[in-house]
Amino acid sequence: MSSTQNKVVLGRLGAVYGIKGWLKVQAYTDYAESIFDYDKWQIGQDDSWQEAEVVEWRKHNKGIIVKFNNVDVREKAQLLTGMEVAVLETQLPELAEDEFYWRDLVGMAVVNTQGYNMGEVKSLMETGSNDVLVVKANKNDAFGKTERLIPFVESQTISKVDQEQRVITVEWDADF
Q: Number of folded domains in the chain?
């Protein structure tokens, strides 16, 4: 099954566990078990996706393992190793007005409070204390920057996130 709806990747299927069709799961969610908050998974990669029904899951050592409906033998499970685990965008919970999914921030323009165009959000990274915007600088950046790392700390470095205009205004020196 392939769907044209937007998918959000939440993890990846790892190695087979045992002989009865179980697979290890690498979850990209904040808490590994949160991946099971979603009952309808899409598994696949590129343009080839199929719906998968989780019938059982459990913690195993420091990870988690999963069992899918109609996957009862090791050989069937091996065909799924390396596949991504996703959910449809419509399954994600609504956020408060001042909250954002990382995927919503990627691609936004970043401008400082003095009006200098710092570039575009390429990705985000987690540092433990706060998230950090990885901003790809414009080709003709006046300060010769190719990339800026800007802490995503609202009311300190982040002045405003305008989702409609797709612009993040930051309190950040252009030469830093």
A: 2
